[in-house]
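Allow me, if you will, to draw on your knowledge of protein folds for a short while. I have a record of one protein: its chain in single-letter code and its fold written as C-alpha cells. Kindly check, if you would, that the fold set down in the C-alpha cells agrees with what the sequence suggests. Thank you for your consideration; the sequence and its C-alpha cells are set out here:
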Amino acid sequence: MKYLMLVCTDTEPDADPTAAPDIERWVAERDARGQRLAGDRLAAPDAATTVRVRDGELLVTDGPFAETKEVIVGFDLLECADLDEAIEVARSHPMAYEGRIELRPFADPDA
C-alpha cells in the first residue's frame, strides 16, 4: 500500500532532539528495505506559489495560502504492507522528534 508521508515542522518539538535518528541513516535503511520509493526536501514556504481558479479567473499568489506556523518541509513516498508499518516508518523519522509526520494513503481508484 502506498502512503504519502508529509514531513512538517512543529511549534512544539521533543524536549530532547538529540534522541532523533540521523536522516542519512534513516533514508539508507528505508531505501534498502524498499519502503521509501522517493522523497526530497522542499524549498522554504516563501518560494511557494498558490494557484486557484475562481469564477473562471486564474488567481496566482506568492507564498503559501494558509497562514500557519507549521510548514511542510519535505515528503517521502512509502510502500508499506499496511498503516501499522507506515506508522513505524514515520515513527523512526527524525522529524517525528522535531516536527510532525502526516501519513496519507493513496486513494483507491476502484472505490
Remarks:
- The CA atoms of residues 90 and 107 lie 19 Å apart.
- The longest helix spans residues 23-33.
